[in-house]
């Protein structure tokens, strides 16, 4: 962990720190991509950003195709 954050998922501190550093005000424009609902999904919800759950097998083989299809379907 970074000393400025000092927290692990599902705490939203890391995501919120990144948003602040990038000066991102509209969380609706952000997408958290992860492979674990219990950590990544909870972290995204706690930070108030969208979440896309990918299974590890798809992330390795068809990551960009799956990502594109999921985004289009929303």
How does this structure look, described?
The chain has 74 residues and is mainly α. Helix content is 49%, strand content 11%. It has a two-stranded parallel sheet with strand order 1-2. Helix 2 (37-47) links the parallel strand 1 (31-34) and strand 2 (50-53). The longest helix is centred in the middle third of the chain and has 11 residues, at 37-47. The radius of gyration is 13 Å and the shape is globular. The N and C termini lie far apart (33 Å).
Defining traits:
single chain, 74 residues, mainly alpha, two-stranded parallel sheet, 2 strands, 49% helix, 11% strand
Topology:
Layout: H1 13-21, E1 31-34, H2 37-47, E2 50-53, H3 56-61, H4 63-72
Parallel strand pairs: 1-2
Helix-strand string = HEHEHH
* Gyration radius over CA: 13 Å
How confident is the prediction overall: mean pLDDT?
A: 89
- Say how many strands there are: 2
Portion of residues in beta strands equals: 5-15%
* Share of residues in helices: 40-55%
Morphology? globular
Q: Counting H and I runs of at least 4 residues, what is the number of helices?
A: 4
């Amino acid at each position: 962990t970074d000393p400025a954050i000092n927290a692990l998922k599902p705490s939203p501190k890391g995501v919120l720190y990144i948003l602040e550093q990038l000066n991102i005000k509209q969380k609706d424009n952000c997408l958290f991509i992860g492979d674990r609902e219990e950590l990544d999904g909870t972290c995204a919800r706690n930070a108030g950003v969208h979440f896309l759950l990918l299974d590890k097998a798809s992330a390795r083989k068809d990551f960009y195709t799956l990502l594109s299809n999921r985004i289009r379907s929303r």
